[in-house]
């Protein structure tokens, strides 16, 4: 494993090892407090972030490493100099690059032209660190994560893509329920179907909200992702049946609710579900740090 650009690049063994290491680091933080001693990580963000930025910064500190946050205040990435030159220069000083970019191509360019590991902290296509944290969270609730039945409801987006790859590679079942025209990318679906077949997982895609019945956990995300120019007014009516509320949770028979956050309360999810007893949102947020630390330790030590 040289980078973490997408979950799809991982074998089942690598994915299972990352989840196991995340649990070990979470349970024994003192044993890893020097794991990144002498290492510096650059965090390059084109988009806003709370969880990703803070969990990487504090996580790197807990591993004994140092991180440097670069935002876009000194100019847009690729404008003052090429992404290739930027990556080559960062690689002179940094031991790894964590990047959140609009285009996934930018992350691929950083990996191609830099000489240090690159970790995708969200792009238009994928959010691998989120999916790792989410399956870490599920594996804390279910002894055998391959038996979990996860349903994702709402916009088929970067988070959906990474969850789909993760579920398929782990051999779990996932149902993706989206309004027509808002399904995940076709080539991702095709790749995930092939992976699910290989690893014994199951992927169902449908616009039928009644397909929600019989799942263990219901996951949703914002209906409009960062960088998407869609206006809420234009899609609200179409998405309304896909709101995760108490009635939908009851219909699903699901014990758990998940959301990567930030959430738009009263839009894709109601307060009662966000704050309900089955809500895993803060466990997911906490697990971002442990999952990412497992990635950092794997890539850098
Ligand atoms: N879930 C997540 O990535 O949150 P941020 O956008 O706040 O980093
Ligand atoms: N799909 C959302 C995830 C935010 C963490 C976005 O890309 O904005």
Question: Any chance you could write out the topology, listing elements then pairs?
Answer:
Blueprint: H1 12-27, E1 40-45, H2 51-62, E2 66-70, H3 83-93, E3 96-100, H4 104-113, E4 118-120, H5 128-141, E5 149-153, H6 158-170, E6 173-177, H7 186-199, E7 202-206, E8 217-220, H8 232-239, H9 246-252, E9 256-259, H10 271-274, H11 281-300
Parallel strand pairs: 1-2, 1-3, 3-4, 5-6, 5-8, 6-7, 8-9
Helix pairs in contact: 1-5, 1-11, 2-11, 3-4, 5-6, 5-11, 6-7
- The CATH topology label of the largest domain is Rossmann fold
Mean pLDDT: 97
The CATH architecture assignment of the largest domain turns out to be: 3-Layer(aba) Sandwich
- Termini separation: 12 Å
**Percent of residues in beta strands?**
5-15%
The portion of residues assigned to helices is 40-55%
Any low-confidence stretches, pLDDT <50, length ≥5? Answer: none
